[in-house]
Amino acid sequence: MDFELSEEHRLIKDTARRIAREVVAPRAKELDETGRYPHDYFEAFKNAGLLGMAIPEEMGGTGNGILPLCLAIEEVAKYECGAGLMLVLTGLPNRPIVFGGTKEQQQKYLPDAANGLTKGAFCLTEPDHGSDAANLQTRATRDGDDYILNGNKVYISGGTVADYLTVFARTGGPGAKGISAFVVDAHAPGVNIDRTDDKMGVRSVPTAHFSFSDVRVPAENLLGLAEGAGFNHAMLTLNSMRPTVGARGVGLAEGAASYALEWARDRKAFGSSVIDFEAIQFMFADMAIQIEAARNLVYKAAWLVDQGKFGKEHAHNLSIAKAYATEMANNVASAALQVLGAQGYMKDHPLERHYRDARQLMIVEGSSQVQRVVISRNMIDRNLVYG
Ligand SMILES: Cc1cc2nc3c(=O)[nH]c(=O)nc-3n(C[C@H](O)[C@H](O)[C@H](O)COP(=O)(O)OP(=O)(O)OC[C@H]3O[C@@H](n4cnc5c(N)ncnc54)[C@H](O)[C@@H]3O)c2cc1C
After folding, report:
1. In the predicted model, is pLDDT for residue 385 greater than 80?
2. How many angstroms separate the alpha carbon of residue 139 from the centre of ligand 1?
3. Is 102 in the pocket of ligand 1 (CB under 6 A)?
4. Which domains occur in the chain, in start order?
5. 145 C-beta neighbours (distance < 10 Å), count
6. For 314, what's the count of Cα atoms within 13 Å in the CB-facing half-sphere?
7. Quick one: what percent of the chain has pLDDT higher than 70?
8. Suppose 231 and one of 23, 179, 212, 384 were both cysteines; which one would form an S-S bond, judging by CB atoms 3.0 to 4.6 Å apart?
9. Which atom of ligand 1 is nearest to the CA of 157?
10. C-alpha pair distances (Å), 334 with each of 189, 356, 362
11. Whose CA is nearest to atom 41 of ligand 1?
12. Is 376 near ligand 1, meaning CB less than 6 Å away?
Protein backbone atom coordinates (compact mmCIF):
# COMPACT_ATOMS: atom_id res chain seq x y z
CA MET A 1 0.00 0.00 0.00
CA ASP A 2 1.40 3.39 -1.00
CA PHE A 3 -0.36 6.66 -0.19
CA GLU A 4 2.20 8.89 -1.96
CA LEU A 5 1.20 10.73 -5.10
CA SER A 6 3.44 10.05 -8.09
CA GLU A 7 5.43 12.76 -9.89
CA GLU A 8 2.80 12.78 -12.65
CA HIS A 9 0.01 13.16 -10.09
CA ARG A 10 1.80 16.05 -8.41
CA LEU A 11 2.39 17.80 -11.72
CA ILE A 12 -1.31 17.57 -12.63
CA LYS A 13 -2.34 18.75 -9.17
CA ASP A 14 0.06 21.72 -9.31
CA THR A 15 -1.10 22.64 -12.81
CA ALA A 16 -4.74 22.58 -11.73
CA ARG A 17 -3.91 24.55 -8.60
CA ARG A 18 -2.26 27.28 -10.68
CA ILE A 19 -5.29 27.49 -12.98
CA ALA A 20 -7.60 27.48 -9.97
CA ARG A 21 -5.86 30.46 -8.42
CA GLU A 22 -5.09 32.47 -11.55
CA VAL A 23 -8.14 31.80 -13.75
CA VAL A 24 -10.94 30.22 -11.73
CA ALA A 25 -10.94 32.09 -8.41
CA PRO A 26 -11.05 35.66 -9.76
CA ARG A 27 -14.28 35.06 -11.71
CA ALA A 28 -16.13 32.66 -9.40
CA LYS A 29 -18.43 35.26 -7.84
CA GLU A 30 -19.24 36.93 -11.16
CA LEU A 31 -20.15 33.61 -12.82
CA ASP A 32 -22.44 32.73 -9.95
CA GLU A 33 -24.25 36.01 -10.58
CA THR A 34 -24.42 35.86 -14.37
CA GLY A 35 -24.77 32.10 -14.90
CA ARG A 36 -22.60 32.41 -18.02
CA TYR A 37 -20.50 29.46 -19.12
CA PRO A 38 -16.79 30.28 -18.57
CA HIS A 39 -15.08 29.65 -21.90
CA ASP A 40 -11.84 31.00 -20.41
CA TYR A 41 -11.79 28.19 -17.83
CA PHE A 42 -12.19 25.69 -20.66
CA GLU A 43 -9.35 27.30 -22.64
CA ALA A 44 -7.09 27.16 -19.60
CA PHE A 45 -7.85 23.45 -19.08
CA LYS A 46 -7.30 22.86 -22.78
CA ASN A 47 -3.97 24.69 -22.90
CA ALA A 48 -2.78 22.75 -19.87
CA GLY A 49 -3.71 19.42 -21.45
CA LEU A 50 -6.26 18.55 -18.75
CA LEU A 51 -9.16 17.54 -20.99
CA GLY A 52 -8.12 14.03 -22.02
CA MET A 53 -7.47 12.33 -18.70
CA ALA A 54 -10.60 10.13 -18.77
CA ILE A 55 -9.88 8.99 -22.33
CA PRO A 56 -7.29 6.23 -22.96
CA GLU A 57 -4.20 7.16 -24.94
CA GLU A 58 -4.97 4.75 -27.77
CA MET A 59 -8.29 6.58 -28.25
CA GLY A 60 -6.67 10.00 -28.46
CA GLY A 61 -6.73 10.98 -24.81
CA THR A 62 -3.87 11.49 -22.38
CA GLY A 63 -4.98 8.41 -20.47
CA ASN A 64 -3.79 9.65 -17.08
CA GLY A 65 -6.86 8.16 -15.45
CA ILE A 66 -9.58 8.99 -12.96
CA LEU A 67 -7.31 9.54 -9.93
CA PRO A 68 -5.37 12.38 -11.61
CA LEU A 69 -8.67 13.77 -12.90
CA CYS A 70 -9.96 13.78 -9.31
CA LEU A 71 -6.83 15.63 -8.14
CA ALA A 72 -7.43 18.35 -10.73
CA ILE A 73 -11.14 18.57 -9.90
CA GLU A 74 -10.37 18.89 -6.19
CA GLU A 75 -8.05 21.83 -6.82
CA VAL A 76 -10.45 23.86 -8.95
CA ALA A 77 -13.52 23.02 -6.82
CA LYS A 78 -11.83 24.72 -3.86
CA TYR A 79 -12.78 27.97 -5.55
CA GLU A 80 -15.68 27.15 -7.92
CA CYS A 81 -17.60 23.89 -7.98
CA GLY A 82 -18.74 24.47 -11.58
CA ALA A 83 -15.11 24.38 -12.72
CA GLY A 84 -14.95 20.91 -11.21
CA LEU A 85 -18.09 19.95 -13.12
CA MET A 86 -16.46 21.15 -16.36
CA LEU A 87 -13.68 18.63 -15.76
CA VAL A 88 -16.22 15.91 -14.91
CA LEU A 89 -17.76 16.60 -18.31
CA THR A 90 -14.50 15.60 -19.96
CA GLY A 91 -15.44 12.05 -18.97
CA LEU A 92 -19.20 11.78 -18.56
CA PRO A 93 -20.30 12.08 -22.22
CA ASN A 94 -17.17 10.37 -23.53
CA ARG A 95 -16.87 7.23 -21.47
CA PRO A 96 -19.92 5.58 -23.07
CA ILE A 97 -17.94 5.93 -26.32
CA VAL A 98 -14.82 4.55 -24.61
CA PHE A 99 -16.76 1.56 -23.26
CA GLY A 100 -19.22 0.95 -26.08
CA GLY A 101 -17.97 2.59 -29.26
CA THR A 102 -16.42 0.91 -32.28
CA LYS A 103 -12.83 1.91 -33.19
CA GLU A 104 -14.22 4.22 -35.89
CA GLN A 105 -16.61 5.90 -33.44
CA GLN A 106 -13.85 6.33 -30.88
CA GLN A 107 -11.53 7.89 -33.46
CA LYS A 108 -14.27 10.15 -34.75
CA TYR A 109 -15.20 11.71 -31.38
CA LEU A 110 -12.61 11.14 -28.68
CA PRO A 111 -9.40 12.78 -29.97
CA ASP A 112 -11.24 16.06 -30.67
CA ALA A 113 -12.85 15.95 -27.23
CA ALA A 114 -9.51 15.28 -25.54
CA ASN A 115 -7.94 18.19 -27.43
CA GLY A 116 -10.72 20.59 -26.53
CA LEU A 117 -11.94 21.01 -30.11
CA THR A 118 -15.41 19.71 -29.24
CA LYS A 119 -17.57 19.33 -26.14
CA GLY A 120 -20.10 16.64 -25.32
CA ALA A 121 -23.06 16.34 -22.96
CA PHE A 122 -24.50 13.22 -21.30
CA CYS A 123 -28.26 12.83 -21.90
CA LEU A 124 -29.86 10.23 -19.66
CA THR A 125 -32.41 11.99 -17.42
CA GLU A 126 -35.97 12.57 -18.66
CA PRO A 127 -38.88 14.54 -17.21
CA ASP A 128 -40.53 11.39 -15.84
CA HIS A 129 -37.46 9.18 -15.39
CA GLY A 130 -34.50 10.35 -13.29
CA SER A 131 -33.26 7.71 -10.84
CA ASP A 132 -35.45 5.18 -12.65
CA ALA A 133 -33.43 5.54 -15.85
CA ALA A 134 -34.02 1.93 -16.91
CA ASN A 135 -37.57 2.93 -17.80
CA LEU A 136 -36.68 5.94 -19.94
CA GLN A 137 -39.03 6.73 -22.82
CA THR A 138 -37.02 8.58 -25.48
CA ARG A 139 -37.35 6.38 -28.55
CA ALA A 140 -35.10 5.72 -31.54
CA THR A 141 -36.81 3.90 -34.41
CA ARG A 142 -34.85 2.40 -37.29
CA ASP A 143 -35.61 3.93 -40.70
CA GLY A 144 -33.31 2.70 -43.48
CA ASP A 145 -29.76 3.85 -42.73
CA ASP A 146 -30.95 6.13 -39.93
CA TYR A 147 -32.74 6.11 -36.62
CA ILE A 148 -35.50 8.61 -35.94
CA LEU A 149 -35.16 10.04 -32.44
CA ASN A 150 -38.07 11.44 -30.42
CA GLY A 151 -38.27 12.40 -26.75
CA ASN A 152 -37.05 14.76 -24.03
CA LYS A 153 -33.95 15.00 -21.85
CA VAL A 154 -33.73 17.37 -18.90
CA TYR A 155 -31.12 19.02 -16.64
CA ILE A 156 -28.33 18.28 -19.11
CA SER A 157 -25.10 19.85 -17.80
CA GLY A 158 -23.15 21.69 -20.46
CA GLY A 159 -25.97 21.16 -22.95
CA THR A 160 -25.92 24.76 -24.17
CA VAL A 161 -22.28 24.55 -25.27
CA ALA A 162 -22.26 20.94 -26.50
CA ASP A 163 -21.29 19.90 -30.03
CA TYR A 164 -22.49 16.32 -29.60
CA LEU A 165 -24.81 14.54 -27.21
CA THR A 166 -24.50 11.03 -25.88
CA VAL A 167 -28.17 10.07 -25.84
CA PHE A 168 -29.73 7.00 -24.25
CA ALA A 169 -32.90 5.97 -26.06
CA ARG A 170 -35.20 3.00 -26.30
CA THR A 171 -34.80 0.89 -29.42
CA GLY A 172 -36.41 -2.25 -28.04
CA GLY A 173 -38.89 -3.42 -25.42
CA PRO A 174 -39.30 -2.27 -21.81
CA GLY A 175 -36.54 -2.13 -19.21
CA ALA A 176 -32.77 -1.80 -19.35
CA LYS A 177 -32.23 -4.28 -22.19
CA GLY A 178 -34.31 -2.16 -24.58
CA ILE A 179 -31.98 0.86 -24.28
CA SER A 180 -29.27 1.85 -26.78
CA ALA A 181 -26.77 4.70 -26.83
CA PHE A 182 -26.24 7.15 -29.70
CA VAL A 183 -23.95 10.04 -30.44
CA VAL A 184 -26.18 12.82 -31.72
CA ASP A 185 -25.08 16.05 -33.41
CA ALA A 186 -26.24 18.76 -31.00
CA HIS A 187 -27.11 21.01 -33.95
CA ALA A 188 -28.98 18.46 -36.08
CA PRO A 189 -32.44 19.46 -37.32
CA GLY A 190 -35.05 18.58 -34.69
CA VAL A 191 -32.67 18.96 -31.72
CA ASN A 192 -33.98 21.86 -29.65
CA ILE A 193 -33.14 23.41 -26.32
CA ASP A 194 -36.54 24.30 -24.91
CA ARG A 195 -35.21 25.97 -21.79
CA THR A 196 -32.33 26.28 -19.35
CA ASP A 197 -32.69 26.20 -15.58
CA ASP A 198 -32.49 28.99 -13.02
CA LYS A 199 -30.44 26.96 -10.58
CA MET A 200 -29.73 27.29 -6.88
CA GLY A 201 -26.00 26.70 -7.37
CA VAL A 202 -23.26 25.58 -9.76
CA ARG A 203 -24.58 28.36 -11.94
CA SER A 204 -21.54 28.64 -14.21
CA VAL A 205 -22.46 25.42 -16.02
CA PRO A 206 -25.99 25.78 -17.41
CA THR A 207 -28.35 22.81 -17.55
CA ALA A 208 -30.42 22.43 -20.72
CA HIS A 209 -33.75 20.75 -21.46
CA PHE A 210 -33.61 19.10 -24.88
CA SER A 211 -36.47 17.97 -27.06
CA PHE A 212 -35.84 15.65 -29.99
CA SER A 213 -38.45 15.89 -32.74
CA ASP A 214 -37.94 13.39 -35.56
CA VAL A 215 -34.16 13.80 -35.37
CA ARG A 216 -32.46 11.74 -38.07
CA VAL A 217 -29.44 10.00 -36.51
CA PRO A 218 -27.24 7.94 -38.86
CA ALA A 219 -27.23 4.26 -37.83
CA GLU A 220 -23.43 4.47 -37.77
CA ASN A 221 -23.85 6.65 -34.64
CA LEU A 222 -25.39 3.78 -32.66
CA LEU A 223 -22.64 3.01 -30.15
CA GLY A 224 -21.04 -0.33 -30.89
CA LEU A 225 -23.44 -0.69 -33.83
CA ALA A 226 -25.45 -2.95 -31.52
CA GLU A 227 -28.82 -2.30 -29.96
CA GLY A 228 -29.54 -3.02 -26.30
CA ALA A 229 -26.14 -2.31 -24.69
CA GLY A 230 -26.78 1.37 -23.90
CA PHE A 231 -27.93 1.02 -20.31
CA ASN A 232 -24.91 -1.04 -19.38
CA HIS A 233 -22.61 1.61 -20.86
CA ALA A 234 -24.49 4.33 -18.98
CA MET A 235 -24.05 2.45 -15.69
CA LEU A 236 -20.36 1.72 -16.29
CA THR A 237 -19.88 5.40 -17.08
CA LEU A 238 -21.69 6.56 -13.94
CA ASN A 239 -19.87 4.02 -11.77
CA SER A 240 -16.48 5.03 -13.11
CA MET A 241 -17.22 8.74 -12.73
CA ARG A 242 -18.52 8.57 -9.14
CA PRO A 243 -15.13 9.45 -7.62
CA THR A 244 -15.05 12.63 -9.70
CA VAL A 245 -18.32 13.86 -8.16
CA GLY A 246 -16.86 13.03 -4.76
CA ALA A 247 -13.75 15.03 -5.67
CA ARG A 248 -15.92 18.07 -6.35
CA GLY A 249 -17.22 17.68 -2.79
CA VAL A 250 -13.75 17.25 -1.29
CA GLY A 251 -12.41 20.34 -3.06
CA LEU A 252 -15.44 22.44 -2.14
CA ALA A 253 -15.14 21.44 1.52
CA GLU A 254 -11.41 22.18 1.59
CA GLY A 255 -12.00 25.61 0.07
CA ALA A 256 -14.79 26.42 2.52
CA ALA A 257 -12.88 25.23 5.59
CA SER A 258 -9.71 27.12 4.60
CA TYR A 259 -11.63 30.32 4.04
CA ALA A 260 -13.40 30.05 7.40
CA LEU A 261 -10.12 29.29 9.22
CA GLU A 262 -8.43 32.44 7.91
CA TRP A 263 -11.47 34.52 8.75
CA ALA A 264 -11.69 33.12 12.30
CA ARG A 265 -8.10 34.16 13.00
CA ASP A 266 -8.96 37.83 12.35
CA ARG A 267 -12.44 38.13 13.80
CA LYS A 268 -12.58 39.38 17.37
CA ALA A 269 -15.27 38.57 19.93
CA PHE A 270 -15.23 38.78 23.74
CA GLY A 271 -11.74 40.25 23.57
CA SER A 272 -10.11 37.39 21.66
CA SER A 273 -10.03 35.88 18.20
CA VAL A 274 -12.92 33.64 17.24
CA ILE A 275 -10.37 30.91 16.51
CA ASP A 276 -9.45 30.88 20.24
CA PHE A 277 -12.86 29.50 21.26
CA GLU A 278 -12.71 25.78 21.80
CA ALA A 279 -16.20 25.31 20.37
CA ILE A 280 -14.97 26.83 17.10
CA GLN A 281 -11.69 24.87 17.19
CA PHE A 282 -13.65 21.63 17.51
CA MET A 283 -15.80 22.60 14.55
CA PHE A 284 -12.59 22.80 12.53
CA ALA A 285 -11.46 19.45 13.93
CA ASP A 286 -14.76 17.90 12.81
CA MET A 287 -14.35 19.46 9.36
CA ALA A 288 -10.82 18.03 9.10
CA ILE A 289 -11.95 14.54 10.18
CA GLN A 290 -14.66 14.48 7.54
CA ILE A 291 -12.54 15.98 4.76
CA GLU A 292 -9.70 13.55 5.39
CA ALA A 293 -12.05 10.54 5.46
CA ALA A 294 -13.80 11.65 2.28
CA ARG A 295 -10.54 12.35 0.44
CA ASN A 296 -9.24 8.88 1.25
CA LEU A 297 -12.49 7.27 0.09
CA VAL A 298 -12.46 9.26 -3.14
CA TYR A 299 -8.81 8.53 -3.93
CA LYS A 300 -9.31 4.84 -3.24
CA ALA A 301 -12.43 4.74 -5.41
CA ALA A 302 -10.57 6.53 -8.21
CA TRP A 303 -7.68 4.09 -7.87
CA LEU A 304 -10.14 1.18 -8.15
CA VAL A 305 -11.56 2.66 -11.35
CA ASP A 306 -8.06 3.03 -12.76
CA GLN A 307 -7.49 -0.66 -12.00
CA GLY A 308 -10.57 -1.45 -14.11
CA LYS A 309 -12.62 -2.27 -11.00
CA PHE A 310 -15.88 -0.43 -11.61
CA GLY A 311 -18.31 -3.21 -12.48
CA LYS A 312 -21.13 -4.41 -10.23
CA GLU A 313 -18.74 -6.20 -7.91
CA HIS A 314 -17.02 -2.93 -6.92
CA ALA A 315 -19.99 -0.60 -7.30
CA HIS A 316 -20.51 -0.22 -3.53
CA ASN A 317 -16.98 1.20 -3.04
CA LEU A 318 -17.67 3.85 -5.66
CA SER A 319 -21.09 4.66 -4.24
CA ILE A 320 -19.74 4.89 -0.67
CA ALA A 321 -17.16 7.45 -1.83
CA LYS A 322 -19.74 9.47 -3.78
CA ALA A 323 -22.34 9.46 -1.01
CA TYR A 324 -19.92 10.21 1.82
CA ALA A 325 -17.91 12.91 0.04
CA THR A 326 -20.96 14.78 -1.25
CA GLU A 327 -22.77 14.65 2.11
CA MET A 328 -19.54 15.68 3.83
CA ALA A 329 -19.34 18.70 1.50
CA ASN A 330 -22.78 19.80 2.64
CA ASN A 331 -21.87 19.38 6.33
CA VAL A 332 -18.57 21.22 5.99
CA ALA A 333 -20.02 24.03 3.84
CA SER A 334 -22.68 24.54 6.52
CA ALA A 335 -20.16 24.50 9.39
CA ALA A 336 -17.78 26.87 7.60
CA LEU A 337 -20.62 29.30 6.97
CA GLN A 338 -21.60 29.07 10.65
CA VAL A 339 -18.10 30.08 11.73
CA LEU A 340 -18.57 33.43 9.96
CA GLY A 341 -21.87 34.14 11.68
CA ALA A 342 -23.96 36.75 9.85
CA GLN A 343 -21.13 37.43 7.41
CA GLY A 344 -21.24 33.81 6.25
CA TYR A 345 -24.83 34.32 5.18
CA MET A 346 -23.94 37.28 2.97
CA LYS A 347 -22.74 37.29 -0.62
CA ASP A 348 -19.65 39.30 0.43
CA HIS A 349 -18.04 35.93 1.20
CA PRO A 350 -17.92 32.77 -0.94
CA LEU A 351 -19.35 30.50 1.75
CA GLU A 352 -23.02 30.98 0.92
CA ARG A 353 -22.11 30.06 -2.69
CA HIS A 354 -20.22 26.95 -1.55
CA TYR A 355 -23.25 26.04 0.59
CA ARG A 356 -25.61 26.34 -2.41
CA ASP A 357 -23.20 24.58 -4.75
CA ALA A 358 -22.73 21.65 -2.35
CA ARG A 359 -26.43 20.92 -2.43
CA GLN A 360 -26.26 19.81 -6.06
CA LEU A 361 -23.75 17.08 -5.35
CA MET A 362 -26.11 14.83 -3.35
CA ILE A 363 -28.58 14.76 -6.27
CA VAL A 364 -26.54 14.44 -9.46
CA GLU A 365 -25.23 11.25 -11.04
CA GLY A 366 -27.23 9.11 -8.64
CA SER A 367 -28.77 10.70 -5.54
CA SER A 368 -27.60 9.83 -2.02
CA GLN A 369 -30.62 7.52 -1.74
CA VAL A 370 -29.72 5.70 -4.94
CA GLN A 371 -26.12 5.26 -3.74
CA ARG A 372 -27.54 3.56 -0.65
CA VAL A 373 -29.60 1.28 -2.87
CA VAL A 374 -26.37 0.23 -4.63
CA ILE A 375 -24.41 -0.18 -1.39
CA SER A 376 -27.08 -2.17 0.45
CA ARG A 377 -27.73 -4.34 -2.62
CA ASN A 378 -24.08 -5.33 -2.77
CA MET A 379 -23.98 -5.98 0.97
CA ILE A 380 -27.02 -8.23 0.78
CA ASP A 381 -26.69 -9.92 -2.62
CA ARG A 382 -22.91 -10.33 -2.53
CA ASN A 383 -22.88 -11.11 1.16
CA LEU A 384 -20.32 -8.40 1.93
CA VAL A 385 -19.34 -8.62 5.56
CA TYR A 386 -16.67 -6.91 7.57
CA GLY A 387 -16.04 -9.80 9.97
C1 LIG B 1 -27.66 20.60 -11.55
C2 LIG B 1 -27.99 19.27 -12.15
C3 LIG B 1 -27.26 18.79 -13.23
C4 LIG B 1 -27.59 17.57 -13.86
N5 LIG B 1 -26.90 17.15 -14.95
C6 LIG B 1 -27.33 16.02 -15.62
C7 LIG B 1 -26.70 15.61 -16.85
O8 LIG B 1 -25.72 16.22 -17.32
N9 LIG B 1 -27.21 14.54 -17.51
C10 LIG B 1 -28.26 13.83 -17.02
O11 LIG B 1 -28.67 12.86 -17.67
N12 LIG B 1 -28.87 14.18 -15.86
C13 LIG B 1 -28.42 15.26 -15.14
N14 LIG B 1 -29.04 15.65 -13.97
C15 LIG B 1 -30.16 14.87 -13.48
C16 LIG B 1 -29.82 14.03 -12.25
O17 LIG B 1 -28.95 12.99 -12.61
C18 LIG B 1 -31.14 13.55 -11.65
O19 LIG B 1 -31.72 14.70 -11.08
C20 LIG B 1 -30.96 12.46 -10.62
O21 LIG B 1 -30.58 11.27 -11.22
C22 LIG B 1 -32.25 12.22 -9.81
O23 LIG B 1 -33.35 12.11 -10.65
P24 LIG B 1 -34.68 13.01 -10.38
O25 LIG B 1 -34.23 14.41 -10.14
O26 LIG B 1 -35.62 12.76 -11.49
O27 LIG B 1 -35.26 12.48 -9.03
P28 LIG B 1 -36.26 11.23 -8.85
O29 LIG B 1 -35.67 10.03 -9.49
O30 LIG B 1 -37.63 11.65 -9.24
O31 LIG B 1 -36.17 11.05 -7.28
C32 LIG B 1 -36.94 11.85 -6.37
C33 LIG B 1 -36.52 11.47 -4.96
O34 LIG B 1 -36.73 10.07 -4.75
C35 LIG B 1 -35.51 9.43 -4.36
N36 LIG B 1 -35.47 8.09 -4.95
C37 LIG B 1 -35.64 7.77 -6.26
N38 LIG B 1 -35.53 6.44 -6.43
C39 LIG B 1 -35.31 5.91 -5.20
C40 LIG B 1 -35.13 4.58 -4.71
N41 LIG B 1 -35.11 3.52 -5.52
N42 LIG B 1 -34.92 4.42 -3.38
C43 LIG B 1 -34.90 5.50 -2.54
N44 LIG B 1 -35.08 6.75 -2.96
C45 LIG B 1 -35.28 6.96 -4.27
C46 LIG B 1 -34.40 10.33 -4.90
O47 LIG B 1 -33.21 10.18 -4.17
C48 LIG B 1 -35.02 11.70 -4.72
O49 LIG B 1 -34.83 12.12 -3.39
C50 LIG B 1 -28.69 16.82 -13.33
C51 LIG B 1 -29.38 17.30 -12.21
C52 LIG B 1 -29.05 18.50 -11.62
C53 LIG B 1 -29.80 18.95 -10.41
Report:
1. no
2. 20
3. no
4. 7-114 (1.10.540.10), 120-227 (2.40.110.10), 231-381 (1.20.140.10)
5. 9
6. 20
7. 100
8. 179
9. 8
10. 45, 10, 14
11. 370
12. no
